[in-house]
Design brief:
CATH class of the largest domain: Mainly Beta
Number of domains: 2
CATH topology of the largest domain: Neuraminidase
Pfam families: Glu_cyclase_2
CATH superfamily of the largest domain: TolB, C-terminal domain
Structural class: mainly beta
GO molecular function: glutaminyl-peptide cyclotransferase activity
InterPro entries: QCT (IPR007788), Quino_amine_DH_bsu (IPR011044), WD40/YVTN_repeat-like_dom_sf (IPR015943)
Order of helices and strands: HHEEEEEEEEEEEEEEEEEEEHEEE
Shape: globular
Keywords: Signal, Transferase
Helix content: under 10%
Protein name: Glutamine cyclotransferase
CATH architecture of the largest domain: 6 Propeller
Length: about 270
């Protein structure tokens, strides 16, 4: 703050202020400039349409609907698997286990392929969509968390506040965007779902929260409170108590989503509403 004193000090004060301003301009914008530029975030909640059964022993890492099937991938060393099952009946069609020491993470369907990430094993696995037989392994740097397909690119998360865009054929990273809201970076981005309107939805690890992201800018445009879902669970339905929210799949042609969590005995068909 500049305090006015005697008239003789006015010129000196103005000069000093100008010098400080000039130095600040050269230093560049503040670190949270991108966050400050974000618009308001819409607060939403979940409206339950129906409740479906879910394997209470599944450590869910990825969930996606493709055609008349739902695909799910799970984690933990020695317990990771990926499965395709009938969307209406829940009847499994095919399931493949991951051998130790692989720790399964997010999954996404891309035409006749299914991509599956691993956590700290340094590989992404491309599988045949129908048989789930492994086609190839691609080396990746860092951790694998969530993945979805958006247009001509794949989008991945690694638990940070950054989304990485990847070539669909080579899996090479081609671009990144930092995810922010009005407070700054939004990290712990976990399971992802890309929707037809171009948005990316992400579970926030350890929270009952889903965020909607504009992948072009990284801005969070909506925050969905899903806390009522966990509160409605029979947390002791399985051998292990229900854990964090994780798993989101858009229902094609609707405004609804399927959501679940790690060791949840239920999966919920929901809308995101004000």
């Amino acid at each position: 703050m500049i305090r006015r004193r005697a008239l003789s000090a006015t010129v000196v004060s103005i000069a000093a202020a100008a010098l400080v301003a000039g130095c600040s301009a050269e230093d560049g914008p503040p670190a949270d400039a991108s966050a400050a530029a974000n618009g308001p975030v819409t607060d939403l909640r979940v409206e339950v349409v129906r409740t479906l059964p879910h394997d209470p022993d599944a450590f869910t890492q990825g969930l996606e609907i493709s055609g008349d099937e739902i695909f799910e991938g799970t984690g933990l060393v020695g317990e990771s698997w990926v499965e395709a099952r009938d969307l209406d009946t829940g009847t499994p069609r095919v399931r493949v286990d991951l051998p130790a020491p692989l720790f399964g993470e997010g999954i996404t369907v891309d035409e006749d392929s299914l991509w599956q990430l691993t956590w700290r094993n340094g590989i992404a696995i491309e599988r045949d969509r129908d048989t789930l037989v492994e086609r190839r392994q691609i080396p990746i740097e860092g951790e694998g968390w969530g993945i979805c397909r958006s247009g001509d690119r794949l989008v991945t998360s690694d638990g940070s506040d950054t989304l990485t865009f990847r070539d669909r054929d080579t899996f090479d990273p081609v671009d990144t965007v930092r995810v922010t809201d009005h407070t700054g970076g939004v990290d712990r981005l976990n399971e992802l779902e890309c929707t037809d309107d171009g948005a990316v939805y992400a579970n926030i690890w350890t929270e009952d929260t889903i965020v909607r992201i504009d992948p072009g800018t990284g801005a969070v445009t909506a925050r969905i409170d899903a806390g009522q879902l966990r509160a409605s669970l029979d947390i002791d339905a399985g051998e292990r108590p229900a854990d964090v929210l994780n798993g989101i799949a858009a229902v094609p042609g609707t405004d609804r989503f399927l959501v679940t969590g790690k060791y949840w005995p239920s999966m919920f068909e929901v809308r995101f509403v004000p």
